From TrEMBL, chain A:
<dbReference type="GO" id="GO:0015794">
    <property type="term" value="P:glycerol-3-phosphate transmembrane transport"/>
</dbReference>
<dbReference type="InterPro" id="IPR027417">
    <property type="entry name" value="P-loop_NTPase"/>
</dbReference>
<dbReference type="InterPro" id="IPR003439">
    <property type="entry name" value="ABC_transporter-like_ATP-bd"/>
</dbReference>
<dbReference type="InterPro" id="IPR017871">
    <property type="entry name" value="ABC_transporter-like_CS"/>
</dbReference>
<keyword id="KW-0762">Sugar transport</keyword>
<dbReference type="Pfam" id="PF00005">
    <property type="entry name" value="ABC_tran"/>
</dbReference>
<feature type="domain" description="ABC transporter">
    <location>
        <begin position="4"/>
        <end position="234"/>
    </location>
</feature>
<comment type="similarity">
    <text>Belongs to the ABC transporter superfamily.</text>
</comment>
<dbReference type="GO" id="GO:0005524">
    <property type="term" value="F:ATP binding"/>
</dbReference>
Automatic annotation (TrEMBL), chain B:
<feature type="transmembrane region" description="Helical">
    <location>
        <begin position="106"/>
        <end position="128"/>
    </location>
</feature>
<feature type="domain" description="ABC transmembrane type-1">
    <location>
        <begin position="71"/>
        <end position="283"/>
    </location>
</feature>
<dbReference type="GO" id="GO:0005886">
    <property type="term" value="C:plasma membrane"/>
</dbReference>
<feature type="transmembrane region" description="Helical">
    <location>
        <begin position="205"/>
        <end position="227"/>
    </location>
</feature>
<keyword id="KW-1003">Cell membrane</keyword>
<dbReference type="InterPro" id="IPR035906">
    <property type="entry name" value="MetI-like_sf"/>
</dbReference>
<dbReference type="InterPro" id="IPR050809">
    <property type="entry name" value="UgpAE/MalFG_permease"/>
</dbReference>
<protein>
    <recommendedName>
        <fullName>sn-glycerol-3-phosphate transport system permease protein UgpA</fullName>
    </recommendedName>
</protein>
<keyword id="KW-1133">Transmembrane helix</keyword>
Length: 357, 293
């Protein structure tokens, strides 16, 4: 049981700054997901916590102990790698027991712990096999088992599900969540997959170019993204962004064609006529009946039927690409949509920051 | 992707194969056949008469204390060369595998000795260890160690072991380095997180994963030390002093070329042939079964 704190962690490789000062507090038993596109520095951050990379600046504190200068071995952590990194020459039992043998635990204790962990993960029949005789999902479980038996203060996951096929990924995702809850081990989980991030995390850190763009619980990130990057990254299909300007004493947005969209939540800060970006999630667009006031007639370019719903990719008269997610099925060449009042996200066009009433 | 090429006639493929086949026949099969034939003959030194003696030559060779001495020398020499060349190469490869500054230069330099001809390599070592003109040889005598490999059998053996191992070092180094680089970094990181210090990581993870490479190299090195070190021994010690560095391959030369005892020399060649066939068989087995993790 432990907490993790990062204070101003920076990292540069040959004058290229990868992390620009990360501060993070992870509470005891919490699962924090670091999510971001590739190259945003999320894996580097995890490796710094693991001790596999040295930060250029800043501190890593585990359970109140500054471990910045310590070897990975002295940090009381366990890590699950993307390619599992099992020891190919050892049996499953050997893989799981390795860390315990190094710690000099008595044989009986090692045996008990390995069998307990194998029981939890349902891999007891595999204990005598070599990694190459296992399927991807089984290897994944062994990698998890190797982390569990150590009973570490901190679990680190480096995209552990990305080598699995889609179905298995969903299954293992749920298993990891259950397991983490059950064991109550503080965890840091890195992924590029926003669905994984949303479903797993108690809190998310959305990384953008070496900076945390937003740190918050998943639903808050979804409901109130801090900037256009987060808004576009979280949610599938991505949020629509429509350029507009503040109007009517900052109580409405004026679109390019002159349509006024009032903000039911109130005034936004800013000067009159300031350019803003309106964000609307595809599922929040209101499919209009006919060509009413304020409806945008979308020229349909692509229809993706998903069964229970349909994603329609279209273009507004100005050429702006807009995606709508409709319940049921859809066919036709024009889809008139209206902007909802309630689910509008307003961002400063220049900085991309969210503008709240 | 393998592409198969079909030739229309019979002639062209035969012509294309002919040079290699000719070399193999003239330089391998013919001498080998001659050796087997001669090993059953007794011939006078001037070649005026020969008679068939069956396996008599083999019996005499195997009973000859000089041959047993040469066999013993061969085993000691091969074991030492293989041990030294493998151990040192592994150590250097581990060092080169670390991301050091100038690692590429270091790697290239280590590969050079392999390009040096055995006799030339021997001369290089001669210049170092010769008691009167050699740098190290003089140095050793200067600090009071009576160094003269021409008088002391143990010193002579040491010298040819060093020279032969140095020659083989580069080859081993390349294979070990390739083997080390094929070990995924994440496996070593996992071991580090599991709490293994570098030394322990080496013995419990790196070394076992290198074992197929090590085994392959062990066979190659033994073959090398047994059969390909004639040049080094000939140039450095000439089998002496008092046959202290006479190995099996060197004795074949001494008995056949110097003493003109062709029958017994051939019998020894045939014995060596059997050893090399056995070693090669083991090696092929190893390559086939090579444990791929």
């Amino acid at each position: 049981m432990a907490t993790l704190s990062l204070h101003g962690v920076r990292k540069s490789f040959n004058n290229t700054a990868v992390l620009h000062g990360i501060d993070l507090e992870v509470a005891d038993g919490e699962l924090v997901v670091i999510v971001g596109a590739s190259g945003c520095g999320k894996s580097t951050l995890l490796r710094i916590v693991a001790g596999l990379e040295t930060p250029s600046d800043g501190q890593v504190v585990i359970n109140g102990r500054d471990v910045t200068g310590l070897e990975p071995a002295d940090r009381d952590i366990a890590m699950v790698f993307q390619n599992y990194a099992l020891y190919p020459h050892m049996s499953v039992f050997g893989n799981m027991a390795y860390g315990l043998k190094i710690r000099g635990l008595p044989r009986a204790e090692i045996d008990r712990r390995v069998r307990d962990a194998a029981g939890i993960l349902g891999i007891e029949p595999l204990l005598d096999r070599k990694p190459k005789q296992l399927s991807g999902g089984q290897r994944q479980r062994v990698a998890m088992g190797r982390a569990i038996v150590r009973e570490p203060a901190l679990f680190l996951f480096d995209e552990p599900l990305s080598n699995l096929d889609a179905k298995l990924r969903v299954q293992m995702r749920a298993e990891i969540r259950r397991l983490q809850r059950r064991l109550g081990v503080t965890s840091l989980f890195v992924t590029h997959d926003q669905v994984e991030a949303m479903t797993l995390g108690d809190r998310l850190v959305v990384m953008n170019a070496g900076r945390p763009a937003q740190v918050a619980p998943p639903m808050e990130i979804f409901a109130r993204p801090a900037d256009t990057y987060v808004a576009g990254f979280i949610g599938s299909p991505s949020m629509n962004f429509i350029p507009a300007a503040l109007d009517q004493g900052n109580a409405s947005a004026r679109l390019a064609d002159g349509t006024l969209v009032p903000f039911p939540e109130g005034h936004r800060p800013g000067s009159a006529g300031q350019p803003i970006t309106l964000g609307v999630r595809p599922e929040h667009l209101l499919p209009g009946e006919g060509e009413g006031e304020g409806a945008i007639p979308l020229a349909v370019e692509l229809i993706e039927p998903l069964g229970s719903e349909t994603v329609v990719h279209g273009r507004a008269p100005g050429g702006l690409a807009i995606t709508a997610r409709l319940p049921g099925t859809f066919s036709g060449s024009v889809l008139p949509v209206r902007l909802p009042g309630a689910h509008l996200h307003v961002f400063d066009a220049e900085t991309g920051r969210r503008l709240d009433p | 992707m393998q592409k198969k090429v079909f030739f229309r006639g019979r002639l062209l493929p035969l012509v294309l194969l002919a040079p290699q086949l000719a070399v193999t026949v003239v330089f391998f099969f013919w001498p080998a056949g001659q050796a087997i034939l001669q090993s059953t003959m007794r011939e006078d030194a001037f070649g005026f008469s020969r008679e068939f003696v069956g396996l008599e030559n083999f019996r005499e060779v195997l009973e000859d204390p000089a041959w047993v001495n040469a066999a013993l020398n061969s085993f000691v020499f091969s074991a030492l060369v293989a041990g030294l060349a493998l151990g040192l190469a592994l150590f250097l490869a581990v060092q080169a595998d670390k991301s050091l500054r100038g690692a590429t230069v270091y790697r290239s330099l280590l590969i050079w000795p392999y390009a040096v001809a055995p006799a030339v390599a021997a001369v290089l070592w001669l210049f170092l260890f010769q008691p009167q003109v050699g740098l190290i040889g003089r140095g050793l005598n200067a600090i009071g160690i009576a160094w003269d490999y021409r008088l002391n059998g143990g010193q002579a053996m040491t010298l040819i072991v060093i020279a032969a191992a140095w020659k083989q070092l580069a080859y081993n180094f390349i294979f070990f380095l390739a083997g080390l680089q094929s070990i995924p970094a994440s496996v070593l990181e996992a071991a580090a997180i599991d709490g293994a210090r570098p030394t322990r990581r080496f013995w419990t993870v790196i070394f076992p994963l290198l074992s197929p490479t090590t085994f392959f190299l062990l066979v190659v090195n033994l073959t090398y030390a047994f059969f390909e070190t004639f040049g080094i021994i000939h140039a450095l010690t000439g089998g002496g002093p008092a046959k202290a560095t006479e190995t099996l391959i060197y004795k074949v030369y001494v008995d056949g070329v110097e003493n003109l005892n062709l029958g017994q020399s051939s019998a020894q060649s045939v014995i060596l042939m059997i050893i090399v066939i056995a070693l090669t068989a083991i090696q092929f087995r190893a390559v086939e079964k090579k444990v791929h993790y």
